[in-house]
Specification:
Layout lengths: L3 E5 L3 H12 L3 E5 L11 E4 L2 E4 L5 E2 L2 H9 L10 E3 L2 E6 L5 E5 L2 H12 L3 H23 L12 H8 L10 H8 L3 H8 L19 H8 L1 E4 L4 H13 L3 E3 L4 E7 L2 E7 L5 E2 L2 E4 L3 H8 L7 H4 L6 E9 L9 E4 L4 H9 L10 E4 L14 E9 L7 H20 L7 E7 L1 H8 L31 E3 L10 H14 L1
Parallel strand pairs: 1-2, 1-14, 2-10, 7-16, 14-20
Antiparallel strand pairs: 3-4, 5-9, 6-9, 7-8, 11-12, 12-13, 15-18, 15-19, 16-17, 17-18
Helix pairs in contact: 1-9, 1-15, 3-4, 4-5, 4-8, 6-7
Length: 487
């Protein structure tokens, strides 16, 4: 008889953990409180417009492809994507515009032409990003940091010898200021701190590994939209015999000494399992499902990452000057991050990220229209007056976009939905609505995430953005790989 596993939560890491365990021969049940899978990586439709609800940038597609290959399937039978020719279009209020081309040489030429920054400065920065990634990849991203074997092998030795290149004692902003002459390009690369919900004026320069994913590996677009990642992996999991139980909230993990005996669902009976994997935020896992267990307070009380305020707008017009990914920068980046992380509020001049999937998937919007996903970096939920902040920020966003695009954006909004830190917290059980778990605003952040396994219960494991190695789709996929490799 095969061993059994329960997965708590069907975020992307939970789905992947289910697939990997099914391939190992486990009988797997996935319990999901919502009516849909994917967690933050979900979607919805409104008034003829389709929106991806959460993550909008797709990098490292090989991590998805390998799951189908692991199961002996052809990835193209389930999932397909294209490599983007351009990564993002950037706008500043003074009229400066910049297209980040996927081709490094073309991008460097664009930077020199538009910003006056020598092309070799950009290329050197991307090379440095690749070097940082090569040092950290096998050591930090593919292994548990909480196992002695991780620190006693050839990859670890390579990391020790190259530690100075990681610039752990320098902030991202400081490193970028030393690299570039033009403050706009400093701001451009400081933005990558937001990819794990951090502050470029605090987070270590090690985080300059992030641009490597976009510019040296590439940015991609799933042909069915980001929801295509979730849907294809759920289909694969079901083909492997995984059972998904939606609208089924786990309320307790049963303990028997040093092991988890099973799960209890809302209004249901206890169900025994050999292994339990929590894709729930690690804070919620301990506080809600294991309230009587020893609480790892040092980790659970770490400052949380930033959150997000998202406006989903159906727009009654097309804009040829906009691409799939667009950024409208704040004129005072330092103040914006000070407001988010220190004052726990929103800037009156926020940076606006605008994603328009109808650029590549026309049926995501009615003819002549566009589906706008607007993300503004926001503080996590600490009891702010969100209704006031949302109303004020909405006007600031409309003002900024109208100024940059030369049109009254408010008059073009045909429909609207809003997601804020409160609703993120409710829908995904993310502590304080943080998008990436603990903040990465100090050099020890990697060691202040919970391990992918429990030190108390020998058959309990953790996956997702709140544990090692961190948030974002690629790292969530890797968390599932690390955890299931340990089982």
């Amino acid at each position: 008889m095969s061993k059994t596993a329960a997965i708590v939560g069907s975020g992307i890491a939970g789905i992947v953990a289910a697939i990997r365990l099914a391939v190992k021969g486990y009988t797997v049940d996935v319990f999901e409180a919502n009516a849909y899978p994917g967690g933050k990586l979900s979607g919805f439709e409104q008034n003829g417009f389709r929106f991806d609800a959460g993550p909008s940038l797709f990098t490292m597609p090989q991590l998805v492809d390998e799951l189908f290959e692991l199961a002996g399937r052809n990835p193209k039978d389930y999932f397909d994507y294209i490599r983007l020719d351009e990564t993002c279009r950037y706008f500043w209020d003074d009229g400066t515009r910049l297209t980040a081309w996927a081709d490094r040489t073309a991008f460097a030429r664009e930077v020199e032409t538009q910003l006056g920054e020598p092309a070799d400065h950009l290329l050197a920065h991307l090379d440095d990003s690749a070097t940082k990634y090569a040092i950290t990849e096998k050591l930090f991203l593919h292994r548990s940091l909480h196992k002695l074997s991780t620190w006693a092998n050839r990859d670890a030795l390579h990391g020790y010898l190259n530690l100075p290149k990681l610039e752990v004692f320098k902030t991202m902003n400081r490193a970028n200021e030393q690299r570039f002459q033009n403050p706009k390009l400093v701001q451009f690369f400081n933005r990558y701190a937001t990819y794990n919900g951090s502050d470029p004026y605090q987070t270590p320069a090690t985080m300059n590994i992030i641009p490597h994913l976009e510019y040296n590996i590439g940015a991609f677009f799933p042909k069915d939209g980001m929801i295509g990642i979730t849907n294809s992996l759920v289909r694969l999991a079901e083909d492997l015999g995984v059972r998904f139980q939606f609208n089924t909230r786990v309320t307790k993990l049963l303990t028997e000494g040093a092991r988890i005996a099973g799960v209890v669902t809302e209004g249901g009976q206890p169900e025994p399992y050999d292994t339990v994997v929590s894709n729930m935020d690690v804070v919620s896992t301990f506080r809600k499902l294991l309230p009587n267990a020893r609480q790892p307070e040092r980790i659970l009380r770490q400052p949380k990452s930033s959150s997000g305020l998202i406006f989903y707008w159906g727009i009654n017009r097309e804009f040829p000057e906009l691409g799939l990914h667009n950024i409208f920068f704040s004129s005072d980046y330092r103040t914006e991050f000070d407001r988010i992380f220190n004052q726990k509020t929103l800037s009156d001049d926020p940076t606006v990220y605008l994603n328009i999937t109808s650029k590549h998937k026309p049926d995501d919007a009615p003819p002549g229209c566009e589906n706008w996903f607007l993300l503004i970096n926001a503080p996590n939920n600490s009891g702010q007056d969100w209704d006031d902040l949302i109303a004020r920020t909405r006007q600031n966003v409309i003002r900024k976009l109208s100024q940059n695009l030369g049109v009254d954006v408010a008059s073009l909004i045909a429909c609207e939905s809003i997601l804020d830190p409160r609703s993120i917290e409710i829908r995904t059980s993310s502590s304080q609505g943080a998008l990436y778990g603990n903040s990465s605003n100090n050099r020890f952040a990697a060691f202040l995430r919970h391990a992918n396994f429990s030190h108390q219960f020998r058959n309990l494991y953790f996956v997702g953005g709140s544990v090692h190695p961190g948030g974002g789709i690629p790292l969530c996929l890797l968390s599932a790989k690390i955890a299931t490799d340990l089982i």
